[in-house]
Design brief:
This protein is an all-beta fold and about 625 residues long. The protein is built from three helices and 47 strands.
Length: about 625
């Protein structure tokens, strides 16, 4: 806590990741609330009470304008927590110290005058800034002066916009409750058997039914270890994949050979393909983001973020953007190819899934939640922040704005906008998929009950079908026109991590734990019952297969077999007909190391202990 030099204000910060500014004269009425990225450990006011410096667990100094409640600039990150900060009385220096460092750093700062608005006479407002020609004064027992400048003789500080979650009366606040497996969707049905969601998306049962294609065999893209994430290129000719083998691979889908391969420093957790096909991105377990140019096959750049990277997404409109969700409970928005930080979007929970809306609408959905018990507690409390937050990145892609949030009963693992941009699908450990209408304030249009937690989602290119995968160890394909289950792919040996439709709708790719491959399942769309015609692909856009490449023999995936078709088209498979999945300690998946438990977000210990009980032993005597 720190009183301002004038005695008019009291600033209070702590591990709640906020700074409260209280008005002393008005009985400590709250004057402002400043959201921070991590816990606050120290505060200091400038001598004129206009500026506030804060430092702490984010390992950097932030300087705030009290009048606007915004961050003016941030000093470069240090090696550990900042424990003390102080302004000099003349506001020319900002001193601070931190753990892991045996010196005091004196950072020169300067005050500049800015005209508030041309129409408001010549009133000028002071603004504190880091000088362009910065000298760093460091102390190690006695003061030793060192000058640090870049090659141009100047120091430039990039100041990202920090976007909070607003107040209770800002943005929309919705709640989606859990629906038990087997309970039918409560969506309204219009005349002709079409639901409201089907009308909004412009899909119909008459468009055809998606089902496995028995004329083609599943294909396998083999890796050295488990594959954690996959994504198709916009033309469907290539697929990017990465995982535990610390290798980013771009596959040619037609020839099943590797077009590009890049070694990473550690295991990958997420990949993304830019909608314009220009970039591929990967995030790894050591919080590093890296981007490659697909055409030149050269690395564009990389950066390291605070917190573990859990999810990434790429956008091409209004400009090339990279979003990364982390355990630091925020989303970092970067511009490409320069890797400039545009904004830090606050979530308050671990951000486990990201999805950009298609086109220039500029919407970004981030789903997540904090599970400190690693899945051992099924009943979670509100502070776990189990929600999906919606932001607008602007028509110019140069800012971020909080629009609202949708709360759930459990952790959110998957978010996916439809290719048409009219709906958003959200799935997670609440064992259901909620489909929300974008143009109607994210009103819930459908609720699809699942047999287990959902870990990944993917829409077909015509927005007619939705694929989901997760803890039931199967990929389920839903018909949005009827809001019923169309069919399921054969069961995998463990949880499904990622699923993706090809842009032409002819392949459904998936990967998961305990499998060292990406499996391509052939699918096709047949017309309604009574019509033997087959309609494939789903999208009208032709699929560019790229330049011809030599074909290679690929072994069939483990457990691949002929797929049995579901019930006839006039009797779609109901949820009641889908068997419940029960995993016990004896019959559950076998794991060779703890990396699986680490990656899935639930401890391996918890997965093995849940089906068991402990009781006193009658075969041995108590020892005193």
């Amino acid at each position: 806590a720190a009183f301002s030099a004038s005695g008019e204000f009291l600033a209070v910060g702590g591990e709640n990741r906020r700074i409260a500014i209280l008005h002393v004269v008005r009985s400590f009425e709250r004057f402002a609330d400043l959201p921070c990225l991590a816990g606050v450990r120290c505060l200091a006011w400038s001598s004129d009470s206009r500026f506030l410096a804060s430092g702490g667990e984010d390992m950097r100094i932030s300087v705030w304008s009290v009048a606007t409640g915004r961050v003016l600039f941030q000093l470069p990150k240090v090696s550990d927590w900042v424990c003390c900060v102080a302004f000099s009385p003349d506001r020319s220096l900002l001193g601070y110290c931190s753990f892991g460092c045996n010196q005091v750093t004196l950072q020169p700062v300067q005050v500049e005058q800015h005209v508030l608005h041309p129409s408001l006479d010549v009133t000028k407002v002071p603004s504190l800034e880091a000088p362009k020609n910065t000298q760093s004064l460091k102390s190690s027992g006695t003061v030793k002066l060192d000058q640090h400048q870049d090659s141009a003789g100047a120091t430039t500080l990039v100041v990202p916009v920090i976007v909070g979650l607003g107040t209770a009366d800002e943005g929309f606040h919705l709640k989606v409750s859990q629906v038990d497996a087997g309970q039918p969707s409560q969506s309204s049905t219009a005349r002709g058997g079409h639901t409201m969601l089907a009308k909004v998306l412009g899909v119909s049962r008459a468009d055809g039914q998606l089902r496995p294609c028995t004329m083609r065999q599943p294909q396998a893209l083999n890796h050295a270890d488990e594959v954690m994430s996959i994504a198709f290129s916009p033309d469907g000719s290539t697929l990017v994949a990465a995982g535990e083998d610390a290798t980013l691979v771009v596959w040619n889908v037609q020839s099943k050979v590797r077009c590009m391969e890049a070694k990473l420093g550690c295991a990958a957790v997420a990949v993304a393909y830019a909608p314009n096909g220009r970039f591929v991105a990967v995030g790894d377990v050591e919080s590093t983001l890296a981007v490659w140019d697909v055409a030149s096959r050269e690395e564009v750049g990389s950066t390291t973020l605070e917190g573990e990277v859990l999810s990434i997404a790429l956008a091409s409109q209004p400009k090339d953007l990279l979003a990364a969700g982390t355990t630091a409970k925020n989303v970092v928005l970067l511009s490409l190819p320069g890797f400039d930080t545009i904004a830090q979007l606050r979530h308050d929970g671990h951000v486990r899934s990201l999805s950009f809306s298609p086109g220039p609408s500029g919407l970004l959905a981030g789903g997540g939640g904090t599970d400190e018990m690693n899945g051992l507690m099924t009943k979670k409390v509100s502070h776990c922040e189990m929600k999906t937050v919606i932001w607008s990145v602007g028509t110019d892609g140069a800012s971020g704005k909080y629009l609202g949030s949708i709360a759930f009963d459990d952790i959110v693992h998957a978010t996916a906008f439809t290719p048409c941009g009219k709906a958003l699908a959200v799935g997670g450990e609440h064992r259901s998929i909620a489909i929300l209408l974008v143009d109607q304030g994210f009103k819930q249009a459908a609720h699809l009950p699942c047999t287990a937690g959902v870990r990944c989602l993917s829409w077909s290119p015509d927005s007619h079908f939705l694929a989901s995968g997760g803890e039931d160890m199967q990929v389920s394909i839903w018909d949005v026109a009827t809001e019923r289950l169309a069919f399921k792919l054969p069961k995998s040996p463990d949880w499904v991590c990622s699923v993706c439709f090809s842009p032409d709708g002819s392949w459904l790719a998936c990967c998961g734990y305990a499998l060292k491959e990406v499996t391509l399942h052939p699918v096709m769309c047949s017309a309604e019952a009574g019509d033997a015609s087959v309609r494939t692909p789903l999208a009208a856009t032709p699929n560019s297969a790229g330049p011809p490449m030599p074909a290679v023999a690929v072994a069939s995936p483990v457990g691949a077999k002929k797929i049995t078709l579901p019930a006839p088209e006039d009797e779609p498979l109901s949820e009641q007909a889908v068997p419940q999945v029960h995993v016990s300690a004896a019959s559950g998946p076998k794991h060779g190391s703890d990396k699986v438990g680490r990656r899935r977000g639930r401890t391996l210990l918890g997965a093995m202990l849940l089906p068991m009980t402990l009781q006193p032993s009658e075969a041995r005597s108590k020892v005193n």
